[in-house]
Model the fold of this input.
Amino acid sequence: MTSTAAMEAGSASVKRLLAAAAATMEKARYCWAMTVAEDGSVNARPMGPQKSLASEDPFGILFLTRRGSRKALEIGRTGRLSVVYQHDADDCYVTLIGRGVIIADRALLRARWQPAWNQFFPAGADDETSIFVQLEADRIELWVRGVTPEPFGTRGAILERGQGQPWRLVQG
Done:
């Protein structure tokens, strides 16, 4: 196989894996956000991710949280965040790993605000303690039956990208 043909095959494989990852994320109602505690242990909690707009990176996830929350403090300290989506009915999971960014932009909060959040933030989008946490993924690990390597469950596929770079397959 020529190097051009290899790149084209790799590109098709990357597109297929990215599509499978996005489909899994779309089907999962919740995901698990994981941060690193000061003692090096992992803290995990279920989250309801904010859906990306069509023009945005589907692997750049937003979460609403409180400024002084444990997750916000841990992301502020480490700058890292991991998120896991699992969809049992399709026997698949996706892990996004990357940079965690704290966003306190009131205009963005107002634009994205959902009425259901008022139960947690009674002042709504004007609540000064409400912030978004954004995951800027630079690594995706996934198992998706029929897409990732067989025998299923022995190893997943791994995609990585540098800042401003396209996704590339590193395992799978």
User: Anything to note?
Assistant: The first strand starts at residue 31 and ends at 36. The CA atoms of residues 34 and 44 lie 4 Å apart.
